[in-house]
Write a structure and sequence with these properties.
This protein is an all-alpha fold. It has a single domain, classed as MetI-like fold (Orthogonal Bundle), CATH 1.10.3720.10. 81% of the residues lie in helices and 0% in strands. It is built from nine helices and no strands. It is flat. The model has no long low-confidence stretch (mean pLDDT 82).
Length: 238
């Protein structure tokens, strides 16, 4: 009988998870009091930036997964993979002035540059996962008659999920940094970049803001991505 995979193993694990979830909210309450800013404005800036990052992530992961699955093997892979390697080395911010000239200080500009930042680690970790597919697995899929959506759902998705999640952790780590930098550079009027720009002369608020951002990133990784990564590996073992 197969062991059922679960993210939470015990009530103790659930309680610890709830406590970890509360950490960023408590920190933000204390931070808002120290900085003497309204919680509404602080949460609005976090929400807007988080929404931009989420949209960029969905775009990046969709393109990365589809491209990786289509070109990880075959004749075209000899061209596509080296090309992708070259493109990921391109300094993205070098094109930021041109993008700002075309789209202005808008969400489109921010989301575009975040998607470009996130897509490469996700793409290459998915490629690594696909390269680990054993010939016997492909043959087993053919023998069982897996095809179409069944092949995607029961073979490709489980195989690529560890790569997707690993790439997500790396990509979103880079994405948070690029998010704040892009918002500051183009001068968009809302979000974390605007918040940090408003308090550049106040080292205390800036320091607490950076710590708060790190706490949020740590909490998201701890609560979502690391458990999903462990579960995805367990699924493959089954």
């Amino acid at each position: 009988m197969r062991r059922k995979t679960a993210i939470y193993r015990s009530w103790r694990h659930v309680i610890i998870t709830v406590c970890v979830t509360l950490i960023p909210f408590i920190f933000l309450l204390v931070f808002a009091e120290i900085a003497r800013i309204t919680l509404r404005q602080l949460f609005f800036d976090i929400f807007i930036s988080g929404l931009r990052l989420a949209v960029a992530y969905i775009i990046a992961i969709s393109i990365a997964w589809l491209t990786a699955v289509l070109f990880y093997k075959g004749k075209l892979s000899a061209f596509v993979l080296p090309l992708a390697d070259v493109l990921q080395s391109f300094p993205t911010f070098a094109a930021l002035p041109l993008a700002t000239l075309v789209w202005g200080a808008t969400n489109t500009t921010v989301i575009l540059f975040l998607a470009i930042t996130i897509i490469w680690p996700v793409f290459f970790t998915i490629i690594s996962s696909l390269k680990l597919i054993k010939k016997e697995w492909d043959e087993a899929a053919e023998v069982t008659g897996l095809g179409g959506l069944n092949y995607v759902n029961h073979f490709l998705l489980p195989i690529t999920m560890p790569g997707v999640i690993t790439g997500t952790i790396i990509g979103l780590g880079d994405g948070w940094e690029a998010l704040v930098a892009t918002e500051i550079i183009i001068g968009i009027k809302s979000g974390l970049g605007s918040f940090f720009q408003s308090y550049t002369t106040n080292t205390t608020i800036t320091t607490f803001g950076i710590i708060g951002l790190l706490v949020i990133i740590f909490t998201i990784n701890k609560l979502i991505w690391l458990p999903l990564l462990e579960m995805s590996h367990a699924k493959i073992d089954e």
